[in-house]
Design brief:
- The complex is a heterodimer of chains A (56) and B (519).
- Chain A is an all-alpha fold and 56 residues long.
- Chain A has 2 helices and no strands.
- Chain B is built from 15 helices and 20 strands.
- A 6-stranded antiparallel beta barrel of chain B has the order 10-11-13-14-15-16, surrounded by 4 helices. A 5-stranded antiparallel β-sheet of chain B has the order 1-2-3-4-5. A 5-stranded mixed β-sheet of chain B has the order 12-17-18-19-20.
- Classes of the chains: A mainly alpha (56), B alpha+beta (519).
- Chains A and B meet through α1 and α2 of A and α9, β9, α10, β11 and α11 of B.
Chain lengths: 56, 519
């Protein structure tokens, strides 16, 4: 018997809880978006660093 | 003429080769930090015998001489000498017998196995170390890695020898400062892979300033800036990529991604003299070095703020860099932030150095601020684009896979590769759950690829392959490889019903997920 055809013994609250856990929220997306933006910012080389001569 | 000298971990033997050229101010040469470094390094790679080849004509020095030194009133000789390093003991007589084909204790094979490289000694008063190719510390596949090396073929009086290295030379402060020396080493590595030219130091300095005149005179050279360095990179037919290096996570992950693909990474740092007490650290100046290897620890020492994104590159504990003021493969430990009042927005990390401070109890640390990476023109998609997709995927989609119980928290290994390297890895492999021939080996793929391999405590989970030659607005994702059954089924479900999982069709992870709608 395939996994999908097994009898479902979960209760309604179990199912709600699983559904909540398996669903990405807007808050999750915002956190990921923030991390990506921060990463972009951290990889940017500030203009003032472009003209510093390597003098050693 | 050659001389064979036994080497007993005493750098004075090396000085005798320098002395034989008769030009050097030996007190000045001895006071340079290179020689302390070379003494330790030659011991670490097990050198037991030196063979001094004198005279020796070196192309790089000859070009520098013809472009600059020859116009001086003082006459500088055109011939250098070359010192070869061997990890076995033999005498001059034994070497001559071998050359004559007579029966002797050593064979050419023994000599090749014991060969640890060479160093050209230039006939200058102070900055004598010319082209130097020495073998690396022994590689340890899971921790210490030197991906940016190439083979140098050497002919010593008819004997063919070979060393795996990347060329190093000390800046002469005339035709080359640190930036030129770092570029020169980097071009040596990329030439082996991409066929670019390997100009000598004076040609690099001149090319860097050809269309971007410096404020001060170019020769003698007191230093290039990032614009000049980028220009020198385009002059040899490569493309420059620049990144900020002030965040430890982004800097280390970016360096790792390119280093693994044998692409050297130039690092711009502030050198800071740090006293042991509460006294204020002092900025000495800016220095350019080239990273060619790294060492991994067991721990993830850094991650981006707010999200639990694990990548292998975050385990980098040491970098191995060619520092023209120290020596080849100089070990630099990744260390905590150093607060410097005169550098208010300095990096949140630092690197230890082998620089010697004028004050005995001070240390000199390097605080990175820029990365400059010379890449082949077809490598168009930068690492950051792929890291962002994977970060987004890990935060949203992989979290759903963890909830579904098909994987645990994933660790990502993200790096640039080539189609040849990728396919070679899977030839004759029978341990994959997929058929590598149909899935991968017979597929037409671009020359350069980004690869993101995900694993957890149970082993490999998936491999995601991206096109590194495409345009950023494209999907980029070209292939997924499944090592763990059930992962792709779960991803197909998510791709078929994104709303049920709270997934957004315009989010970055969709570039990966959309592939599972039809595969």
């Amino acid at each position: 018997m395939s996994k999908d055809k097994r009898p479902d013994n979960r209760t309604e609250p179990d199912r709600d809880n699983e559904q909540r856990q398996s669903k990405a929220t807007d808050k999750d997306h915002e956190a990921a978006e923030r991390a990506v933006r921060e990463m972009q910012e951290n990889c940017r080389l500030p203009n003032k660093d472009l003209y510093r001569p390597f003098n050693l | 003429m050659i001389r064979v000298l036994p080497y007993n971990d005493d750098i004075a033997t090396f000085y005798s080769a320098i002395e034989s050229l008769g030009r050097a101010d030996l007190d000045c040469v001895r006071s340079a930090q290179h020689f302390g470094y070379f003494e330790n390094y030659l011991r670490d790679i097990g050198v037991k015998t030196l063979v001094v080849e004198n005279p020796y004509t070196d192309r790089d020095f000859l070009n520098d001489l013809a472009s600059y030194y020859v116009f001086c009133h003082v006459e500088y000789p055109r011939k250098c000498c070359r010192v070869h390093f061997f990890s076995s003991q033999f005498t001059s007589e034994e070497l001559l017998q071998l050359m004559r084909g007579a029966t002797c204790r050593i064979s050419t094979r023994d000599l090749q196995q014991a060969y640890r490289g060479f160093s050209v000694i230039k006939p200058l008063p102070q900055t004598v170390i010319g082209r130097t190719c020495v073998s690396t510390y022994p590689s340890q596949p899971d921790s210490r890695v030197f991906p940016c090396t190439r083979k140098y073929r050497v002919n010593l009086c008819g004997l063919d020898l070979e060393v795996e290295s990347i060329a190093f030379q000390q800046q002469d402060r005339v035709v080359a400062a640190c930036a030129t020396s770092a570029l020169w080493s980097a071009f040596h590595v990329s030439a082996d892979r991409y066929g670019n030219s390997t100009p000598c130091p004076v040609q690099i300095t001149n090319a860097a300033t050809r269309n971007l005149p410096a404020l001060s005179r170019v020769l003698p050279n007191s230093g290039l800036d990032l614009f000049h360095m980028a220009h020198a990179i385009t002059e040899v037919g490569l493309e420059p990529l620049n990144f900020g290096a002030k965040s430890r996570f982004e800097a280390l992950t970016t360096m790792y991604a390119y280093l693994r693909a044998h692409v050297p990474v130039l690092l711009g740092v502030d050198l800071v003299d740090v006293p042991p007490t509460e006294q204020e650290p002092k900025v000495l100046g800016q220095h350019a070095i080239v990273a060619s290897g790294y060492s991994l620890s067991e721990e993830f020492d850094c991650k981006p703020a707010d999200v639990d994104f694990r990548v292998v590159a975050a385990k980098i504990a040491k970098l191995y860099c060619h520092d023209d003021q120290v020596g080849p493969f100089a070990r630099m430990n990744v260390s905590a932030q150093v607060t410097v009042p005169t550098l208010p927005d300095a990096a949140n990390w630092a690197l230890t150095t082998s620089w010697e401070s004028a004050a005995a109890d001070h240390t000199i640390v390097a605080i990175p601020f820029a990365l400059l990476i010379p890449v082949y023109h077809k490598i168009r998609i930068p690492y950051t684009a792929i890291q962002q997709i994977i970060l987004y995927f890990d935060c949203i989609v992989a979290a759903r896979l963890v909830n579904a119980g098909v994987v645990q928290a994933l660790t990502w290994d993200i790096y640039l590769t080539t189609v040849n390297d990728l396919k070679s890895e899977f030839v004759s492999r029978a341990d994959t759950p997929f058929d590598p021939v149909e899935t991968l080996l017979l597929q037409s793929m671009p020359k350069f690829l980004w690869r993101a391999t995900a694993s957890d405590d149970a082993g490999l989970a998936v491999d995601f392959i991206f096109d590194a030659t495409d345009i950023e607005q494209s999907e980029l994702f070209i292939l997924g490889l499944e090592y763990r059954q059930g992962v792709f089924d779960e991803l197909r479900k998510m791709a078929a019903q994104p709303e049920a999982y709270g997934l957004q069709a315009r989010a970055l992870y969709w570039r990966v997920l959309s592939w599972f709608r039809s595969n």
